Amino acid sequence: GNSVTQMEGPVTLSEEAFLTINCTYTATGYPSLFWYVQYPGEGLQLLLKATKADDKGSNKGFEATYRKETTSFHLEKGSVQVSDSAVYFCALSDPFQGGSEKLVFGKGTKLTVNP
Amino acid sequence: NAGVTQTPKFRVLKTGQSMTLLCAQDMNHEYMYWYRQDPGMGLRLIHYSVGEGTTAKGEVPDGYNVSRLKKQNFLLGLESAAPSQTSVYFCASRQRTGRSYEQYFGPGTRLTVT
């Protein structure tokens, strides 16, 4: 079945540090890939997405590239801010297995950025 | 637009009590979902609905029931609450068409069962 594996946290960085959160996936078809972010006390919101191989999703300084050859979708940001402190979830939607209507989530990675 | 709203925000139940969580969306979305979030477990799908009057089981449906009588509302029921159902519950919705598959989430309901 489909699955998503994220690097375990928590991750603690200083402001302006470089961020990488690793995400790899297993899927039988051609999934769409997502990063969601959850700020403290809130629901999840979409951060970025990529729907086919080699696509790069980007938003708010975050980027992730859909790598089919390594089945990866790593999240990166060149210079993190305190306001980026949140939990980040990698997710996939596979139209060929499980139905395109469902998302499969990773377990989440908590990021704390210190001033 | 209010987006996705959830009622209540917090609730404490005793074992064996029942309750209903309400999710409402004003985006005219066809699909709606109920998830639970537990530490170290990510989000797990409880039930979902692809349209008014239809529901389907997700990954962890036992102990929960749902109903989708109106397109804008999706109700999650606990008939006899158990401590294992202590969790944060999130509702989400998305439109049917389009390849973006973005789900819009509500703010969550924190439920404690003692």
Label the structural class of chain A.
mainly beta
Please tell me how large the radius of gyration of chain A is: 14 Å
Oligomer: heterodimer
| Shape assignment of chain B | globular
Strand segment count of chain A: 12
| Tally of individual helices of chain A | 0
Strand content of chain A: over 45%
Mass-distribution shape of chain A: globular
Largest sheet of chain A: 6 strands, mixed
Total strands of chain B: 11
- Taking the alpha carbons of the first and last residues of chain A, their distance comes to 41 Å
Instruction: Summarize the main sheet of chain B.
Output: 7 strands, mixed
Please give the share of residues in helix of chain B: under 10%
**Number of helical runs of chain B?**
0
In short:
The complex is a heterodimer of chains A (115) and B (114). Chain A has 115 residues and is mainly β.
Helix and strand topology:
The complex is a heterodimer of chains A (115) and B (114).
Chain A: E1 3-6, E2 11-14, E3 19-21, E4 23-26, E5 32-38, E6 44-50, E7 56-59, E8 62-65, E9 75-77, E10 86-93, E11 104-105, E12 109-114
Parallel strand pairs in A: 2-12
Antiparallel strand pairs in A: 1-4, 3-9, 5-6, 5-10, 7-8, 8-9, 10-11, 10-12
Chain B: E1 4-7, E2 10-13, E3 19-25, E4 31-38, E5 42-51, E6 54-57, E7 65-67, E8 73-78, E9 87-94, E10 104-105, E11 109-113
Parallel strand pairs in B: 2-11
Antiparallel strand pairs in B: 1-3, 3-8, 4-5, 4-9, 5-6, 7-8, 9-10, 9-11
